[in-house]
Amino acid sequence: MLEDHTTTASSPTEWPTAYPQGYAVVDVETTGLARDDRIISAAVYRLDARGEVEDHWYTLVNPERDPGPVWIHGLTSDVLEGAPLFRDVAEEFAARLDGRVLVAHNAVFDWQMIAREYARAQREAPVRQRLCTIALSKELGLPLPNHKLESLAAHFGVVQQRAHHALDDARVLAEAFRPSLRAAAAGGVRLPLLECRPLTEWTDRPAPRIGRQAGGPDGGFGTYRPGTWRPSRKRPACPHPNPGRYEDGKRLKQGMRVAFSGDTSVERELLEDRAAEAGLHVATSLSRLTSLLVTNDPDSGTSKVVKARQFGTPVVDEAAFGQLLRDVEPADG
Predict the structure, then answer these.
(1) Which of 233 and 154 is assigned the larger pLDDT?
(2) Residue spans of alpha helices (H) in 126-267
(3) Is the pTM of this model over 0.70?
């Protein structure tokens, strides 16, 4: 049983009746962040209505392609080659999710990856709601230095053993979620639940197949280390004109200049890759021409945040940006 690291002695006697009846704390490791990227491992901790652990489950998944940033997740082609395909684990995965709220750190990312895998398998994940622990920590006003999982874990005294390993990340999140849930219940906080809609769109562009990880005539990717896991880290220039600033409540539009500041819960390079693949211009600095600043710490004193205030540049957090990336408006013409 997981230890409870919350400062409250016990769970509230009066539990909010509107709270869900069960949770599935999920973590997936992937080949990247784009629509054609795949899940390579998945873990689920099932919790009851009050956050008590019922069981856990973990599997590797053969992505049928290059494994992506091995320096992050540590899963090589050799390790994944004999793993089951997603369609082979889809039924058992679904049984773990069925009837529960999906809980994840930056949940929009995990949900999109899971939903696309089910779409490829011509199935639908039995999930109707999700809860992002980043959003919950904001609702609770937790004094975190940033929104990384390691910071949330440290706040509750949870020890990470293998960062970016799906099973350990899910365990850490389950341990941190339980005291968060109890604090929310004790304070009568409304949980930040969002609807999970099935996805039907994805991209399966040609990618190096599993087993072509090493450099040379087969794969040509060289050794895996930060900055070299794709053929080239230098992105081509954005082909679309800048349509101007992002307006709250509207869609992002191809060509918009997007800058990032501060820590992100997923690797910055992967987040920038996904923005570029959506047709956005990834800016390394902030100017009056910048359409949007993405930061989880809008009150920080970084140069980009300070300039955004001066120029009136719109600001959104990482979770909101992930939502916006789902539906980017094509450039004119």
Answers:
(1) 154
(2) 133-140, 149-155, 166-186
(3) no
